[in-house]
Amino acid sequence: MRHVVFAVALIMAGWRADALAAQTLHVDCSSQVANADGSLQRPLNRLEQLNAMRLMPGTRVLFKRGMTCHGSFKPPAGSSGKPGAPIVVDAYGDLSLGRPIIAAGCSAAQSDPDQSQTEAHKTANGISPYHSLCKADDGVVRPAALHLMNSEHWEINSLELSNDGLAEAGRVGLLVQLEDFGVGHHYRINDVYVHHVRGYLQDAPGRELAYKETGGILFTVTRLLERPGSKQKKTSFDDVVIENSEIYQVDGIGVSNRSAWMCRQRGAPCGDFAPYKGNADYMKAAGTQAASDFFPSTGIAIRHNKIHNIGGDGLIVRTAVAPKVVANLLYDIWMRAPGNSAGAWAINTDDALFEYNEVYGVRHREEIEPGDGMAFDADMGTRNTRFHANYSHDNAGGMMLFCACGRDGLGNRATTEGVLVESNLSVNDGRRAIMMAGVDTALVKDNLIVAHGATPLIENADFKSPNAVELHGNQFVNTSNQGVMYRTKNKEGSYTAMVWRENSFHGYPAGTRADGKAAALVERWFAATGFRENSYKGSSPQAQ
């Protein structure tokens, strides 16, 4: 009956329920006003009301500060803005009351505004179990607190999103999804706080979602409805900016983009995504032409975000050209997932830039040998990835991973080529500084690596792929004067493809002693790179 009354109210207000003219809609889920029409005086008070409207270019959706909406904000597919007239989501009301909240998960939850309750349950090392704030769960799993489907030209600001639960499920905080759409343009995520999203921590037979499709903020291109003989339209994102936001206590990943249009020769494994997952015959059929699928997203920028207490990976860019990952702060990563995870990395992507990021506290699971747990990774199918002026410290698995460590699903070895690791700082990273799991060509240049114990510089895990790296002009310092050059995972592992040129060693065999050198060199690095001026402004005390 309430839906009938609301529909009548819309008609009386001159609206059409299927497509509304551009206007400002106010949402206050604490309001008890009758005949809600979206005005400031009679705001919408249920997300179901908002989800019934196909929003038009120029529409502004304003949520009231200090209140909570339970459920999911999912406008109808086709609710799109246009160039110069995006759909804008923002907050209104008393600034002291904080962001408006959309809680997709628990019907009743504890409040933890300063994160103290959750942090009190965090372990210092090893596995740190997910801490739910749920007091009651209505049994409904909603895919996301905010879910855009086949929409473009959106700007989302100043929201708090959660999707908690008493058990793991297919949950995301903010989900933007395209399928059979073409190119979706112009997405802005700014000043959004995503927290307590209880997604999956590992894959399992029969699940619709991979665990890396759950977590904090996800931009995904799917082909779920494609069937053999009727290929969908190639689809991707263009002009995506995620900035000034915080992602906290989420499983399985912090921030990522994904695409099912990712197959190419020597790229990442094609069979990981529908429609090819579990359907190898379709992928290999001549008429499918899977090798020509690659349709990368463009214009992706992920900058000035704080990402912490993440079950699996912190930040991943996939199937993209020239994404920019700049001035993010990531810590307490790989807290729970049983499978390998790292801080910030690229896969199946060309010309990615990682710059002025700080990553620390990535954990390592000793039962996984050799295991990830490093700050950065150039993974399968990457070309010309650049890591410049980043600060990696206190990561249990080291600073850097090269991983041409699989096959493309089309019969070829995956490639990792043209990697440049330049002018970065590593301090007290564990197990090894650099992990070699396959790379075709890479230059590691002008970095400063400071170790405090018998931590090897290089570990080699042999995956039957080359480890062709040139190390040039780096400074290696071991303050214990007990530095170790190599750790070999597999006895057949080889370092013969590595070239060393004009590096300096302090505290290593055949080098000078490191006594008193580290502090001055570290300070010189901060000054030379401008890291303090260009990094996330809430970085660790040493970086500031």
UniProtKB/TrEMBL annotation:
Q: Where is the signal peptide?
A: 1-21
Q: Does the keyword Signal apply?
A: yes
Domain of life, per UniProt, equals Bacteria
Keyword ATP-binding in the entry? The reply is no
Query: Which keywords does the record carry?
Result: Signal
- This chain's protein is named Uncharacterized protein
